[in-house]
Structures are given as C-alpha cells and as structure tokens.
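dumping this here so i dont lose it
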C-alpha cells in the first residue's frame, strides 16, 4: 500500500514538472492570456505533458524540467510495479 502512494506522489511530481514547463512556454507565447487561453492550455497540456519539458530543453538549454519529469515518472513506474508485485 505504501509503494502505491509513493508511486502516485512521483507521478504527480512528473505531471507538475510537465505543467510548469508548458506554462513557461505559454508565458512566452501569450504573456497577456485570458481565461479561454488558460483553459485551452490546461487541456492541451493534459494530453501532451511528457512532451512539454522538451521545449525549455531545446529552445533555452534548460533541461531541468525534462530531467525532473522523466525521472519522477520512471521512479513512479518502479514503485507501481513493486506495489503490484507485493500485492499478490
């Protein structure tokens, strides 16, 4: 049970890193965005959050978001697999 919760925590960290990278891109694209743009950004980022950290990495040379996102997802997968294995 503990492994499952740790897995979810790392998934949330990975998703937040993807959203932060995407929000950085949104601020550069439309700095004076309204509620419609923000809602569209939220939906599109929900579909493509693992791809969002590549923008700051490639365009700005800041790979921090990508490293945090993919490392957290990998650790979440490992804990999720361990939770499934220990359950049976």
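and the seq i came up w/
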């Amino acid at each position: 049970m503990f492994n499952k919760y740790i897995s979810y925590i790392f998934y949330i960290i990975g998703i937040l890193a993807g959203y932060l990278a995407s929000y950085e891109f949104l601020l550069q694209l439309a700095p004076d965005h309204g509620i419609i743009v923000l809602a569209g950004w939220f939906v599109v980022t929900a579909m493509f959050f693992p791809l969002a950290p590549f923008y700051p990495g490639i365009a700005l040379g800041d790979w921090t978001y990508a490293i945090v996102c993919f490392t957290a997802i990998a650790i979440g997968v490992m804990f999720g697999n361990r939770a499934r294995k220990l359950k049976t």
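The chain has a mean pLDDT of 92.
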